[in-house]
What we know:
The chain is an alpha+beta fold. The chain has 2 helices and 8 strands.
Amino acid sequence: MKMFALPLAIAATLSLAACNKNNEAQVLTEPSATEVANSINEGMQQLSGNFKGTLACASCPGIETALSLNADGTYTLEQTYLEEQDGYSKTTGKWTLNEGRVALTPDGATEADTFYAVDSNDALTQVSADGSRSVNAELNYTLKRG
């Protein structure tokens, strides 16, 4: 047993030394407000584009939805409630990206009223204000890039 202890100790020491060649303590710092803003802006640039899908609806067969997220932080949301007379609506406003969620704030409003979780760069899923998803997995609330 002692024969294995020395080689293991040497390997562990070499591994640690290789991770930090100068044996200096690494200091982790909080990102500055500018770095955070730049990161959010970069995320918004990457996410901007057009997303489409037919979302679940309680009172109709579905809601054809087209969401355009513009790189300048504005959006256009077009919704058509299927089989509903006068079921078309178009909303414009500002969008933000925070903690993996897109928040849509309509023009003239002071708070966001529609939220999407960012599943990937190509898929957004509508969620509640607190970020919770529908408990019914059979209902579609996802928009896809396209």
